[in-house]
Design a protein that fits this description.
By secondary structure, this protein is of the alpha/beta class. It is built from eleven helices and 13 strands. This is Sialate O-acetylesterase.
């Protein structure tokens, strides 16, 4: 829900003989004053209407997850796609005669120290990569008249069972090997929920300083926490115990984020862990299908009806093409990452519009 509360041209003169002047029914001085007043009123109303159209709450979207949300889409591959006549049209809006396009209506803040500014390239990890924010930002930027702020919180290698662990899930009981003694010891208590807490903190700090992130920010109109995208799962699927807890932890994540950001109806999009494509490698297939079902089932919980969506990412995997990141991170392909981000955006737009 929104946090906000809310010339006339001179007439040309002409001379006419005295005998002809009586033919004209000239308005009185009082009549001319009323006409000018009405003109001024109409002009003011039109100007006010234009201001109201421009001054609307900024739509804020949070993109959160681990390395795939950080973004591994290779800019090098995007350049190849633009140079290929068979694919150039799909991505031509991303570059013009002056270089890579930066949107004037969509802005981004990435972690504490990964940059901020107009949405464009440069917000992946490393900076010659991009993530779902690019496709997502273009979709929501085209869909809404309001300005958009994307707050991206993403760190590689974070499990939902541990570092993204939401408060309602309580402390976990996982272990690690002590580097000095080589013994198996419990994980430090502060490890649990570390990335979750960082996400909430970064979002709150960004909103407190939103006027520094969104040019021309209108304090009276404020902002609206419009949605949250969670794209994560690799560090949970590789551990059976973490995987078994995933559904409960994911549902708690939705509940806790809404509570901690005081946005009880904030919309959520869950991104499928679809790394191996529609047909995973046979020896991993059962595990991948099980994990994907866990993710989708959370989106179908009765309490989340109409406010939580699920996006399949596996259809965008191209396993028999060039790879730009070995066998990891959706092969680092620019087309895959852009389409995944666009799919997140399409689903988010549907959810937003369904609330109106």
């Amino acid at each position: 829900m929104p946090t906000s509360r809310r010339n006339s041209l001179p007439m040309a003169s002409s001379w006419s003989p005295p005998e002809n002047r009586k033919r004209f029914n000239l308005p009185s001085k009082k009549g001319r004053s009323m006409k000018a007043l009405l003109s001024l009123l109409v002009f003011s109303l039109v100007a006010a209407a234009g201001h109201l159209a421009d001054a609307a709450p900024v739509k804020v979207f949070i993109l959160c997850g681990q390395s795939n949300m950080e973004g591994k889409g290779a800019v090098k591959h995007l350049e190849q796609l633009l140079a290929d006549p068979t694919t150039a049209k799909e991505y031509q809006h991303l570059r013009n005669d002056n270089g890579w396009v930066e949107r004037d209506d969509v802005f981004i803040k990435y972690n504490d120290d990964r940059g901020q500014g107009k949405l464009g390239l440069g917000y992946g990890t490393p900076t010659d990569r991009f993530g779902p924010e690019l496709g997502f930002g273009h979709v929501v930027g085209e869909a809404f008249d309001e300005k958009v702020l994307i707050i991206k919180c993403a760190w590689g290698g974070r499990a939902l069972a541990v570092k993204f662990r939401p408060p309602s899930s309580g402390k976990g009981d996982f272990t690690q090997r002590d580097r000095a003694t080589k013994e198996i010891v419990p994980l430090p208590e502060e490890t649990y929920g570390e990335a979750y807490r960082d996400t909430i903190r970064i979002v709150k700090e960004s909103l407190a300083n939103i006027d520094q992130l969104v040019p021309g920010y209108d304090q009276e109109e404020g902002y609206e926490l419009s949605g949250f995208v969670f794209f994560q799962g690799f560090n949970d699927i590789i551990d059976a115990k973490k995987m078994d807890q995933y559904g409960e932890n994911l549902a708690n994540l939705v509940r806790d984020v809404r509570k901690d950001l005081a946005a009880p109806n904030m919309l959520f999009v869950i991104g499928e862990l679809g790394q191996q494509g529609v047909e995973p490698e046979k020896r991993y297939a059962e595990k991948h299908f099980k994990f994907r079902k866990i993710q989708e089932d959370v989106s179908k919980l009765p309490e989340f009806k109409g406010t939580v969506g699920f996006v399949k990412t596996s259809p965008y995997v191209i396993g028999d093409g060039d790879s730009f990141d070995g066998g990891y991170h959706y092969y680092g392909r620019a087309d895959t990452f852009y389409k995944i981000g666009s799919a997140f955006g399409d689903t988010m737009v549907e959810l937003v519009k369904s609330q109106n």
